[in-house]
């Protein structure tokens, strides 16, 4: 299958191509005209071809958590501007614009929810917030997710979707990678499961820290997942990349993920996984 | 080693060269000594003035200087009984990361560092200091070995970044870096990292989860190269100078942000002017830093490292 470049980094072209004032949407996969309400009800999965379009934070909660209910943790954390960074427009202004655009205060939400009755620590990236980039707030929240889930003896399910570290917080963003992985290492010592879900796209500092360190790694169909962005690699090696490079299926073939799951089966599958892993813990105790 | 001189360092580099020649003369003829002292004084003054005003991008250029001491240049000056260890036991040996056992002031330590090459042939072998997953997996192997045998870990950071290539992605560059961060985080031995040149993003951090982090005066540490940052922000890599200033990547910036614990001053004109002197300075700083961790035991070291990184970040609560 050929992946057209214009869709390579974005699966939300359907939003841009909306016609009929939001009544109809075009599928990015098969190009079919779809009923917008039906697509939303199907968690943005095309009923014709199975294409997964971008799902909102609220949509993920409804998909994954019983009753769509999340009791949020640390939602009050807001970004600072440690570098007083400006690219012509100040970082603080960029943050405010991202908050308006995404309807979220930051690029990740964490808290306690239930999957098929089992309490879990839950985290989900908000890609619409500055590309899901990881700055100090994201790093702090993920560290707290592992810490608090460890204290409350909950398994963690973390859904990543991120372009990587947030440039505007400079080196402090890089340090979040170490902070999150260190928190994960402590969490692991409690022998609690960590299920990592790699959504589209998961690259850079999020991929190269906790996202591949799940006891089980799960990818979304066709998600772009990798360390370096495809354009960076092309510019480095001066070759066109092979078809399907860095897609979920490529990761599965190379042994980096355990399964590719469609949204239709994601919750049930993860519930079963957590059940198996908890069974072992019960027998040991 | 062919001398490379950056345009902005030329006045200082020329004076340093004169001092060097005069010193050779003075060694056999004491009549040159007053002249030598005068010239050294002048050189130091000029270097201080010139280097005090360097821009961020000029410091980036110094951190990448072709004559800068690399990890092995420090290894041969700081350590004795060096035994190099190779391979990741999974796929290959990656010469962009070197590792081994050595004695540091009589104490056995594990040494791991990025390694750049000098000249085309060695740079091809070292892949310009850009590791593949195998380099990080070798590092993990050695972190775990150090942990098992109770040996302190000393790392030397000097990389443009982890290599962005097809094979690197196929073999899990992300996983390798993430796992390296984890292995460092859980090692119950003292870890001291030194940024000796370029600290390029996650590829550098995979050697950087330490109890203490030192930085050489003209080394840099950044989440993205200034060129890459400018390309993303302004679609114009030539505005790297602006990006470098914005990103706060020089040693004083890093100290102020708490990302490093101390700056190691470099010799007049930069570490590339005098590898021996640079190594003496680093030796002093490394030894005092390592011994300052002597009171911490096993889990305390893990806890100390956790608290260090746990505290990094800036947010409003």
UniProtKB/TrEMBL annotation, chain A:
Intracellular or extracellular location(s): Cytoplasm
**Keyword Transferase belongs to the record:** yes
Q: List the transmembrane segments.
A: none
Coarsely, its chief localization is cytoplasm
Which residues are recorded as binding Zn(2+)? 27, 30, 46, 49
Q: Supply the enzyme class, top level.
A: transferase
Q: Which Pfam families match?
A: Carboxyl_trans (PF01039)
Q: Where are the zinc fingers (C4-type)?
A: 27-49
Essential cofactor(s): Zn(2+)
Question: Which processes are annotated in GO (biological process)?
Answer: fatty acid biosynthetic process; malonyl-CoA biosynthetic process
Q: Reaction(s) catalyzed by this protein?
A: N(6)-carboxybiotinyl-L-lysyl-[protein] + acetyl-CoA = N(6)-biotinyl-L-lysyl-[protein] + malonyl-CoA
Can you list the GO cellular component terms from the UniProt entry? acetyl-CoA carboxylase complex
The cross-references to PROSITE patterns, in alphabetical order and at most eight, read:
COA_CT_NTER (PS50980)
Q: Which InterPro entries match?
A: AcCoA_carboxyl_beta, Acetyl_CoA_COase_Trfase_b_su, ClpP/crotonase-like_dom_sf, COA_CT_N
Q: Which UniProt keywords apply?
A: ATP-binding, Cytoplasm, Fatty acid biosynthesis, Fatty acid metabolism, Lipid biosynthesis, Lipid metabolism, Metal-binding, Nucleotide-binding, Transferase, Zinc, Zinc-finger
Q: How is the cofactor bound?
A: Binds 1 zinc ion per subunit.
Quaternary structure, per UniProt, is:
Acetyl-CoA carboxylase is a heterohexamer composed of biotin carboxyl carrier protein (AccB), biotin carboxylase (AccC) and two subunits each of ACCase subunit alpha (AccA) and ACCase subunit beta (AccD).
Recorded family membership: Belongs to the AccD/PCCB family.
What does the UniProt record say this protein does? Component of the acetyl coenzyme A carboxylase (ACC) complex. Biotin carboxylase (BC) catalyzes the carboxylation of biotin on its carrier protein (BCCP) and then the CO(2) group is transferred by the transcarboxylase to acetyl-CoA to form malonyl-CoA.
Protein's name according to its UniProt entry: Acetyl-coenzyme A carboxylase carboxyl transferase subunit beta
Automatic annotation (TrEMBL), chain B:
Coiled-coil regions listed in the entry: none
GO biological process assignments = fatty acid biosynthetic process; malonyl-CoA biosynthetic process
Q: Which reaction does it catalyse?
A: N(6)-carboxybiotinyl-L-lysyl-[protein] + acetyl-CoA = N(6)-biotinyl-L-lysyl-[protein] + malonyl-CoA
Task: Decide whether keyword Ion transport is in the record.
Answer: no
Functional description taken from the UniProt entry: Component of the acetyl coenzyme A carboxylase (ACC) complex. First, biotin carboxylase catalyzes the carboxylation of biotin on its carrier protein (BCCP) and then the CO(2) group is transferred by the carboxyltransferase to acetyl-CoA to form malonyl-CoA.
Describe the protein's quaternary organization and the partners it interacts with. Answer: Acetyl-CoA carboxylase is a heterohexamer composed of biotin carboxyl carrier protein (AccB), biotin carboxylase (AccC) and two subunits each of ACCase subunit alpha (AccA) and ACCase subunit beta (AccD).
Q: What is this protein called?
A: Acetyl-coenzyme A carboxylase carboxyl transferase subunit alpha
């Amino acid at each position: 299958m050929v992946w057209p470049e214009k869709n390579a980094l974005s699966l939300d072209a359907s939003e841009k191509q909306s016609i009929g004032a939001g009544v109809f949407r075009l599928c990015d996969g098969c190009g079919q005209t779809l009923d917008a309400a039906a697509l939303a009800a199907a968690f943005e999965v095309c009923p014709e071809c199975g294409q997964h379009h971008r799902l909102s934070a609220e949509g993920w909660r409804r998909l994954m958590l019983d009753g769509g209910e999340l009791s949020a943790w640390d939602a009050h954390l807001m970004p600072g501007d440690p570098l007083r960074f400006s690219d012509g427009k100040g970082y603080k202004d960029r943050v405010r614009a991202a908050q308006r655009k995404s309807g979220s205060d930051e690029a990740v939400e964490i808290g306690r929810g239930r999957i098929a009755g089992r309490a879990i620590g839950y985290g989900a990236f908000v890609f619409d917030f500055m590309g899901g980039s990881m700055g100090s707030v994201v790093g702090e929240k993920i560290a707290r997710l592992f810490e608090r889930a460890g204290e409350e003896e909950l398994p963690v399910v973390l859904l990543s979707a991120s372009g990587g570290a947030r440039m505007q917080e400079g080196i402090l963003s890089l340090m979040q990678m170490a902070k999150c992985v260190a928190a994960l290492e402590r969490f692991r010592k409690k022998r609690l499961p960590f299920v990592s879900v790699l959504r589209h796209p998961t690259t850079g500092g999020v991929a190269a820290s906790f996202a591949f360190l799940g006891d089980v790694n799960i990818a979304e169909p066709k998600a772009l997942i990798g360390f370096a962005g495809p354009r960076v690699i092309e510019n480095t090696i001066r070759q066109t990349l092979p078809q399907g490079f860095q897609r979920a299926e490529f990761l599965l073939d190379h042994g980096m993920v355990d399964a590719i799951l469609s949204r239709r089966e994601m919750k049930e599958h993860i519930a079963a996984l957590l059940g198996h892993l908890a069974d072992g813990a019960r027998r040991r105790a | 080693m062919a001398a490379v001189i950056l345009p902005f360092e030329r006045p200082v580099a020329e004076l340093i060269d004169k001092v060097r020649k005069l010193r050779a003369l003075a060694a056999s003829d004491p009549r040159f000594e007053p002249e030598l002292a005068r010239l050294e004084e002048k050189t130091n003054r000029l270097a201080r003035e010139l280097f005090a005003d360097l821009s961020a991008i000029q410091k980036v250029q110094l951190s990448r200087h072709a004559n800068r001491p690399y990890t092995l240049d420090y290894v041969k000056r700081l350590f004795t009984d060096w035994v190099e260890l190779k391979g990741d036991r999974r796929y290959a040996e990656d010469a962009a990361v070197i590792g081994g056992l050595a004695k540091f002031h009589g104490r056995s330590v594990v040494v791991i560092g990025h390694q750049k090459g000098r000249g085309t042939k060695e740079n091809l072998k070292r892949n310009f200091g850009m590791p593949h997953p195998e380099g990080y997996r070798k590092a993990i192997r050695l972190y775990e070995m150090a942990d098992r045998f109770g040996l302190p870990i000393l790392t030397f950071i000097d990389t443009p970044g982890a290599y962005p290539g097809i094979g690197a992605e196929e073999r899990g560059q992300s996983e390798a870096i993430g796992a390296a961060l984890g292995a460092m985080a859980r090692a119950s031995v003292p870890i001291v990292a030194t940024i000796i040149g370029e600290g390029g993003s996650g590829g550098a951090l995979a050697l950087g989860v330490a109890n203490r982090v030192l930085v050489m005066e003209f080394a840099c540490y950044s989440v993205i190269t200034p060129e890459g940052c400018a390309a993303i922000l302004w679609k114009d890599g030539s505005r790297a100078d602006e990006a470098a200033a914005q990103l706060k990547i020089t040693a004083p910036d890093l100290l102020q942000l708490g990302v490093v614990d101390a700056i190691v001053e470099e010799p007049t004109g930069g570490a590339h002017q005098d590898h021996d002197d640079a190594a003496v300075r680093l030796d002093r700083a490394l030894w005092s830093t390592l011994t300052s961790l002597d009171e911490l035991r096993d889990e305390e070291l893990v806890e100390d490292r956790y608290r260090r990184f746990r505290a990094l970040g800036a947010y409003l609560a």
